[in-house]
Design a protein that fits this description.
Elements lengths: L1 H19 L3 H4 L4 E6 L3 H16 L3 E6 L2 H9 L5 E7 L4 H7 L3 E11 L1 E6 L20 E4 L5 H11 L9 E4 L2 H13 L6 E4 L4 H4 L2 E3 L10 E8 L2 H4 L1 H7 L6 H14 L3 H11 L1 H7 L3
Parallel strand pairs: 1-2, 1-3, 6-7
Antiparallel strand pairs: 3-10, 4-10, 5-8, 5-9
């Protein structure tokens, strides 16, 4: 809880400095757009593209790094204008149910993306049912990302599902980077390991991985949406018009993630390259 309070204070400080330190025409208050961003690479890449597109037409753009529940709260309070990576209707159903009266789907980034529990191809188990009685084999761990993400909540539902009989397993929440470090270390030794995974993600370019079939239907394919608060179209009509036309191919995002993770190509650079290679789409978004 203290961690969340601290982050909220940081967010408020950032927004206060942006809006109260100088006159509007000097500080750019009326033209500053704030994106909420999680630490997931699937969020960083599209956020950077959107940032550069809006900067191209003269907006100041701030990006604040927060846990996902705080981003939803920030949008509800209109302290955050846009979030590029909402998985609906299934993965983040609980968050959407809580905030949907105040938020809206501005655009669909991409459709029908998988998520769930992921293992190396060399692991003999193919379904979550196959894990019953095998906690010792996997050190009793399902390694996942930070608390608050939809995939973490769904994973808890899986662990509690009596039809799966997953006694001895526990969910180990960490950062995305720590989860991938565990995956890499275990795979170098060809040891069994279970993580939570989703596409788009560079892990599927780097490793031979497979999703464990979820026969009880907890993990379902989602669409990924750009979210904002109700009224963005009145507060920032041009931004709404631009972002409502947004979309991207999953393969493009995975390529950007791969270049970031393996060739140290920053997302700022790959975003600029994507804009150059998709100039016709960007110009259409800008009405040019």
């Amino acid at each position: 809880m203290m961690k969340h309070v601290k982050k909220l204070c940081i967010l408020i400080s950032i927004l206060t400095m942006a809006s109260c330190g100088a006159p509007a025409d000097e500080a750019g208050d009326a033209d500053t757009i704030v994106f909420g961003q999680t630490a997931w690479t699937s969020t960083e890449a599209p956020t950077q593209i959107a940032k550069q597109i809006l900067e191209e037409v003269g907006y100041n753009v701030d990006i604040v790094l927060l846990d996902q529940p705080m981003i939803f709260q920030g949008m509800q309070n209109e302290e955050i204008d846009l979030f590029m990576d909402a998985w609906l209707p299934y993965t983040e159903e609980a968050l959407w149910d809580e905030y949907q009266d105040d938020l809206q789907m501005v655009a669909t980034s991409y459709e029908n993306v998988p998520l769930g529990w992921v293992v190396p191809e060399y692991v003999e188990e193919n379904t979550i049912d196959d894990l019953a009685g095998k906690a010792d084999k996997f050190d009793g761990e399902i390694v996942t990302i930070a608390e608050g993400a939809g995939i973490v909540g769904l994973s808890r539902d899986v662990l509690e599902d009596e039809d799966y009989d997953l006694e001895g397993f526990e969910l180990v929440a960490s950062s995305e980077a720590a989860m991938l470090s565990t995956l890499d270390r275990r795979m170098q030794q060809e040891e069994p390991v279970i993580i939570t995974g989703w596409r788009p993600h560079a892990m599927f370019s780097r490793y031979d991985l497979k999703f464990l079939e979820d026969t009880q239907g907890h993990f379902q394919y989602d669409n990924v949406y750009v979210l904002s608060y109700e009224g963005l179209e009145e507060k920032f009509p041009e931004v709404y018009d631009i972002m409502s036309q947004w979309s991207i191919e999953v393969e493009d995002l995975e390529e950007m993630m791969y270049e970031f993770e393996h060739n140290d190509v920053p997302f700022e650079e790959s975003a600029a390259q994507w804009i150059e290679e998709n100039r016709d789409q960007v110009d259409a978004m800008l009405g040019q």
